[in-house]
Design goal:
The chain is of the alpha+beta class. The protein has nine helices and seven strands, in the order βββαββααααββαααα. The radius of gyration is 19 Å and the shape is globular.
Length: 245
Amino acid sequence: MSLVCKSQAIVLHLTKYGDSGLIAHVLDSQLGRRSIYLRGIRKSKNSAVIAHFHNLALIETVTAISTKSKLLYLREYHPLIQLHSIRTDISKGAIALFISEVLYRTLREESGDEELFKWLKGMISALEAIEGSCANFHLKFLAGFCRQMGFLPHDNWSEQTPLFDIISARFVPSGTSYDPGYLFSEQDSLLLHELLTTDFDKAMQIPLNAQARSSFCTQMLKYLGYWLDTTINIRSLAVLHTIFM
């Protein structure tokens, strides 16, 4: 017996399944993190369909939910938004790969979170629409994603509290008894403060080099990993570092 569900989904990752199938790992607007079986999609006559399941693709789906398996079986799909520039622009594509990997490695199988899904749709649409440099986009994303996940960094930054402490999620004074292994550098701490307090357009204009972006991402992933009680290794971070050098 199976139930039919119509909803929206964000594509996070694809893996091969059998001789000609794929598993699309998605964030479903109603069901949360799920896996959809795409039967026979790797056959030559269906090869063009794979392009619709790129990183961060937004799709409307009709799926069958089996009572005997956690897999969803795809019956129908339609692109929800055409993401032409994300698919064709190298910089945006690299950011989409990074964000997809972060979501894939941090979101767990549980019931849907409508607020998170709505926020992610907005961020994906913003990435598609942005003109000019998008080199800081993933930094703004990480700061916002922590908030959406409930790991709100307390923005109490000041000259007297210039270091962000991962464990307390607050800015703290330098030279104190806090574990230095869990403290952001002054540069990363100030950048976090700026990203939390500036609007999207101003965040895109913060002058940074590739090393500063990479350092901040590494620290933010450590912060997320601490609160999720896991280690988050994101391979695509090296790709971003190369592209935005």
